[in-house]
Design brief:
47% of the residues lie in helices and 23% in strands. The strands form 4 sheets. Strands 4-3-5-13-6 form a 5-stranded mixed sheet, sandwiched between helices.
């Protein structure tokens, strides 16, 4: 078994295609295919099913092994970075801001980053998108993690963006709600609920589009306090609209107190989560290293959530 084989199965699982994985890793398709076959023979386990239309689809056993492969690769990366710290002094500060509701997701990549670079002081704040953009422009933070959508990209030529996670808007309801059983809700059904809105640009914009198409929305209240909103939802006082990636690692969702519900019969645009910086300021080495950890954990958690 070689580390390259683990990298191959991880990349094929990410892309769903041996050809795309080969192009990304700059190796031949036959090289990846033969390497995976040898690994399957060595382990005595079939990791992928090959389909002409569906591409390479992990088997049930393969899903477990691919998750383990992610962990091995991450540990190897940590090993390499730990070795580098003996040759290069990595110190200084890392200041970042994130949209509310996403802070819990950052715990693992921040912990991994801090383990690799213990001399870097990390400062985190939680702010709405527009405040994060202002701090980026004023050079008050190194990086901002925000929701990225089409209208924002059109408005801001002075900023650079990169989408790391893609998602869509969901409705969060109490476990006692009948929608927690069906796991779906139509816009018409949503309009009949007490809706609690987070005071963020994209959430308000999304709600406005629903209102313009389906009529008035019964908004119970609007708040920028995510804890208050979560408590109100858990107690069944109303429902809320959130990007699905803000629910990753959310303890209320993991415990079942709050249930994500898909909005059906409505064609919505994709929303992204990623970084923003000014065109005038380049990322520091510390920021670039943090992004490597953040991207890796994003891919790993997204893959896990899709295959649970």
């Amino acid at each position: 078994m070689h580390i390259e084989q683990l990298e191959y199965i991880v990349k094929v699982a990410e892309t769903g295609s041996i050809s795309i994985a080969a192009e990304t890793l700059h190796v031949s398709q036959s090289g990846i295919s033969q390497s995976i076959t040898r690994l399957e023979e060595e382990l005595g386990v079939k990791i992928f099913k090959r389909h002409r239309r569906l591409g390479a689809v992990p088997t049930d056993e393969g899903k477990t092994l691919i998750k383990k492969a992610y962990e091995v690769i991450m540990k190897l990366q940590e090993f390499k970075e730990a070795a580098q710290t003996y040759n290069t002094v990595n110190s200084g500060n890392l200041k970042l801001s994130s949209i509310p509701g996403f802070m819990l997701f950052l715990l693992e990549p921040l912990s991994s980053y801090k383990h690799a670079y213990p001399n870097v002081d990390i400062e985190i704040s939680e702010k709405p998108v527009q405040h994060i953009i202002e701090h980026v422009q004023n050079n008050q933070i190194d990086i901002g993690l925000i929701t990225i959508y089409e209208d924002l990209l059109k408005k801001r030529e002075d900023l650079l963006f990169e989408v790391i996670l893609e998602g869509k808007m969901m409705v969060s309801v109490s476990k006692k709600s009948p929608f927690a059983i069906t796991k779906t809700i139509t816009p018409q059904q949503l309009m009949s609920q007490n809706v609690i809105l987070y005071n963020g640009d994209y959430v308000k914009q999304f709600a406005s589009k629903l209102i313009s198409k389906f009529g008035p929305m019964n908004i119970l209240f609007t708040s920028d306090n995510t804890e208050v909103i979560k408590k109100a939802i858990a107690e069944g006082l109303g429902v809320t609209i959130v990007p699905d990636f803000t629910l990753l690692n959310n303890p209320d969702v993991l415990s079942g107190e709050i249930v994500p519900v898909e909005i059906v019969e409505y064609d919505q645009e994709t929303i992204g989560l990623g970084w923003v910086r000014s065109v005038h300021n380049k990322f520091s080495k510390n920021t670039k290293k943090f992004l490597e950890h953040f991207k890796f954990h994003s891919r790993m958690l997204t893959y896990s959530s899709q295959n649970d």
